Inverse folding.
């Protein structure tokens, strides 16, 4: 039986900033491309994966769709391709909108197929009557999103507006590199922007205007505490327009709704946080917090939100995840919890072996309740990591498990499981408590856990569990463990 779990792509694949679109009966995912153990954002070329609309367990690799050096602005391959978006234009062709790392320009590529490959088409620019046809540079053209409306009009959304929790300054090394490349220093924007494009998909019809207020401009707007930061995403649902974005809290994807594509947006709420912050009032994360980016898609009558999580103790190895959502009759979307079963259409079957790295809850005594990539504790806490095996792809597992670590999965359906087996390695002497809840108030089993091996070793525990259940492991003892698989019998 084929199943889907989070992350929904193979564990060796790192496609964050995921924008899902339904084209020709398949859901295509367009995003940036990280790598295991990355040292920069988006080090790879753009790739895409797709799945049949009625079977989101069956993802197919479509290959590289656009190379970093395909744009004349990056012929020397000095910059990385950041978050893109794709739309089907009025002419029936598919247009890829993208940006490079803090480079003040939005590029466009085109293809006859949603699976690519895409070819360079041009840069978004003003008409000659506005600024002499110059490229779109102000307001930090960043994280483009694009909508081809039902009337054929095309709208471009973008922006980068650090504020409050995400106030930032350009790193001196980045500044020096940009100066060497003769790249104009970016002027970070203050809001999320929108501009209508001509049918050529490149030329603006007007000056850009504010779509969503940034963190410094939310007073009295209804966006207080959730001002625009980055990660523009746009969808039309019925006759309403839903703008999804990352707020200045960075770990959450929020949404706003309007009757018009380019104005009048009203704050709706948070759809997902990659640490479940805000869910039912939660203030402590269930997973290491990090930046977030994603979008919505309807497939086979069900709406989903795509987002990403951090791995490898850095901000540069992100993996795509997804959860089903419900758009209520009044248009509202309730915040959803992050899970291990994601696109599966229900709980995972509680039998056989699963990769430990599909955990949706990983915390330790050093897990922070805020995002701080400069704090080295992020690289030491309990986390998912990857190891080169000599094979085609890396091997993923959880590392840094120690006293106070908690690893959790939501959800499984069990048919009277009696034994749970962990594949572990390391040096650890203590115990593991297994429960159906985070607090450990619904025990399922557990016992002593003593391991001293550099090789993967199986350790089994008796358990008693039936029906739908979450699964949590709480560790106590001395030493440190790696966890590769979780198996049921």
């Amino acid at each position: 039986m084929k199943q889907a779990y989070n992350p929904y792509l193979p564990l060796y694949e790192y496609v964050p900033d995921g924008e899902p679109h339904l084209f020709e009966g398949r859901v295509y995912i367009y995003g940036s491309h990280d790598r295991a153990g990355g040292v920069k954002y988006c080090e790879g070329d753009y790739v895409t994966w797709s799945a049949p609309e009625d079977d989101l367990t069956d993802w197919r690799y479509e290959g590289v769709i656009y190379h970093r050096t395909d744009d004349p602005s990056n012929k020397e391959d000095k910059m990385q391709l950041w978050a893109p978006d794709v739309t089907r234009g009025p002419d029936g062709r598919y247009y890829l909108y993208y940006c490079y790392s803090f480079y003040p320009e939005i590029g466009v590529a085109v293809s006859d197929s949603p699976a690519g490959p895409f070819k360079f088409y041009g840069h978004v620019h003003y008409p000659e009557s506005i600024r002499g046809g110059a490229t779109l540079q102000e307001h930090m053209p960043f994280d483009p999103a694009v909508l081809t409306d039902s009337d054929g009009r095309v709208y471009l959304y973008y922006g980068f507006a650090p504020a409050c929790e995400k106030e930032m300054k350009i790193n001196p090394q980045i500044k020096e590199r940009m100066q060497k490349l003769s790249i104009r220093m970016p002027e970070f924007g203050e809001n999320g922007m929108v501009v209508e494009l001509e049918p050529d998909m490149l030329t603006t019809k007007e000056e850009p205007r504010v779509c969503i207020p940034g963190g410094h401009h939310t007073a009295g707007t209804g966006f207080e505490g959730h001002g625009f930061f980055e990660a523009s995403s746009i969808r039309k649902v019925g006759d309403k327009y839903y703008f999804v974005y990352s707020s200045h809290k960075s770990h959450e994807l929020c949404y706003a709704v309007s009757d018009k594509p380019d104005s009048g947006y009203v704050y709706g709420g948070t759809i997902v946080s990659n640490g479940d912050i805000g869910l039912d009032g939660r203030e402590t994360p269930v997973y290491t917090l990090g930046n977030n980016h994603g979008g919505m898609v309807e497939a086979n009558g069900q709406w989903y939100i795509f987002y990403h999580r951090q791995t490898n103790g850095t901000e540069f190895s992100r993996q795509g995840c997804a959860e089903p959502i419900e758009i209520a009759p009044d248009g509202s979307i309730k915040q959803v919890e992050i899970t291990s079963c994601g696109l599966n259409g229900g709980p995972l079957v509680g039998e056989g072996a699963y990769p430990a790295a599909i955990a949706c809850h990983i915390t330790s005594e050093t897990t922070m309740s805020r995002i701080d990539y400069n704090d080295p504790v992020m690289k030491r806490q309990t986390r998912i990591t990857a190891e080169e095996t000599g094979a085609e792809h890396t091997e993923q597992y959880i590392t840094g498990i120690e006293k106070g670590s908690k690893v959790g999965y939501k959800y499984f359906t069990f048919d009277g499981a009696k034994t749970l087996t962990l594949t572990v390695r390391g040096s650890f002497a203590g115990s593991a408590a297994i429960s159906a809840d985070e607090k450990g108030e619904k025990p399922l089993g557990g016992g002593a856990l003593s391991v001293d091996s550099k090789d993967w070793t199986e350790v089994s525990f008796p358990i008693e569990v039936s029906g739908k259940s979450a699964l949590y492991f709480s560790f106590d003892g001395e030493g440190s463990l790696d966890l590769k698989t979780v198996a049921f019998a």
Remarks:
- Helices lie at 172-180.
- The mean pLDDT is 92.
- Residues 228 and 247 are 5 Å apart (CA to CA).
- The longest strand covers residues 443-488.
